[in-house]
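ok, trying the design again with the full structure, not the truncated one.
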């Protein structure tokens, strides 16, 4: 997309008599893009996309709660929220869980390593 500043530069170059090919080379755009913008009377308005609610939204808190409890299996959580009324797909659930999964798994790994360390320590000291 051509920015507003570029739009006016392209118009100014064309008004000074430069050809479409020369303008395209000068601004680093394709000739068809330059020709299209010369045909426009004003630069296009950029409109941000709006947030579209997803089917998983009402169940986000429950999913995060289950993940914090250590359940990172999407199939198990999918079955649980399906019983609660979720009618979306598994992929939408997995996409939601993906960024949160790593933090939960790292916490779980640290806890597991500490637990194993203490278990080994108790085993060694209890044998004496």
């Amino acid at each position: 997309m051509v920015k507003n500043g570029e739009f006016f530069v392209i118009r100014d170059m064309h008004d000074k008599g430069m050809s479409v090919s020369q303008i395209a080379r000068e601004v680093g755009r394709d000739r068809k893009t330059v020709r299209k913008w010369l045909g426009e009377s004003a630069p296009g308005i950029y409109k941000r996309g709006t947030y579209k609610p997803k089917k998983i939204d009402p169940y986000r808190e429950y999913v995060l709660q289950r993940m914090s409890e250590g359940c990172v299996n999407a199939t198990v959580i999918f079955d649980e929220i399906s019983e609660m009324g979720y009618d979306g797909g598994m992929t939408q659930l997995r996409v939601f869980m993906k960024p949160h999964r790593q933090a939960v798994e790292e916490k779980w790994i640290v806890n597991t390593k500490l637990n194993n360390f203490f278990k080994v320590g108790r085993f060694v000291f209890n044998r004496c």
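Keeping the full-length input from now on. Confidence is low (pLDDT under 50) at residues 120-128.
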